[in-house]
Write a structure and sequence with these properties.
Layout (H helix, E strand, L loop, with lengths): L2 H21 L10 H23 L7 H27 L3 H17 L7 E3 L7 E3 L4 E3 L13 H12 L7 H27 L4 H32 L1 H14 L17 H14 L3 H17 L6 H6 L2 H17 L12 H15 L4 H14 L10
Parallel strand pairs: 1-3
Antiparallel strand pairs: 2-3
Helix pairs in contact: 1-2, 1-3, 2-3, 5-7, 6-7, 6-12, 7-8, 7-9, 7-12, 8-9, 8-10, 8-13, 9-10, 9-12, 13-14
Amino acid sequence: MTLDEYIRGVTSQLERRVRELRMRIHRQLPRDYDALAQKCREKLDGVLVDLRSVRDEYADVDSQPARLRHLRRTVSDLSQLETVAVAALDRAREDDHYLNELLYRITREIGYPLITPVVTTLSSEYFHIYPDFNLLCVPLSEGKFLLHLPDLYHELAHPLLVVRDEPLVESFQRAQDACLAQVLSYLQGEKTKAGRRRSPDSLSYQIELWELTWIRSWLDEFMCDLFAVYTLGPAFAWSHLHLSMLRGQDPFEVPRLQFSSHPADDARMQTMLVGLAQSGFEQGAGEIEEAWRSFLCSCGASAEPEYGHCFPAPLLATIAGATRRGIAGMKCRLAEPSTSDPVHLCLSDAWREFRRDPSGYPQWEETCVRERLISNGVGRVIRG
């Protein structure tokens, strides 16, 4: 069997797979899923175009390496469609519908400027979002519990940073650009200082690594944290503490040799505390800071000298201020102590009740989900 024969056979088999996946895009789902279904159809059409290009447009021997690379990229795209987006449509059920209604309520409460993402309970990696599909993934049973749901607000911010040519989010993206300029200016200053001190090459490499991580993901994560803080309030910071205790590692971690996708948990918390103080939640910020310090003491964590250089407090405060202005520019509702939107109150009350009576909280939570969310309209929202 020649390479050409192999590729013609495998592309034919993959075309059958595309047709099978199109059949899995059900037409009887609630309207929440319409945009995702259309996106899947468009991307599957694109996969078909690529498969036919791989099959027919590489004639000479010298082009075969490029042909294989094209095939592999296409298979990767098809795999993501099958295991993520089409799977979310094929396996959607009542729990997913409920969470989609809940997220719709949240986006209406905060004045979210984009189309509400679709939620699926197929996540194997905690909360995360695929902005290209506008698909937000949560763990299977998440809709029955409240303490982690503030992370929905964080995930909602990611599409705001990557969508292109959308006037409604320009102020947020301008804030991102301004913050990145501040970060790069600061790190350039650190490089200059290291050169004057004739510091070892390892320090220069470390600063370059920090620069890479700030550009690739850290700034985005800080801004998404702050979006959640500014639109929800203390409940998000409490959920961050909760997540750090259950899943976190070194809260003062500074990357030394390889890329880190998320900033240190302590730096994230310190930035949230600045945001809470700017929003009028000084009392809540004080309570969270005290609990955070107790957590750090309990786990025996302490910062090394590099930590303060990697996450300088003035830079974090600058990011907090710029992000708040960017959110306000999108005309989103900024949370205040007096905010009384139903989902906002429910998630805030959950953390208040958990801290007040941890042992009695599970029963309170079960009743709250049933009476304040499900029975109070989530799952029965009429779209206007």
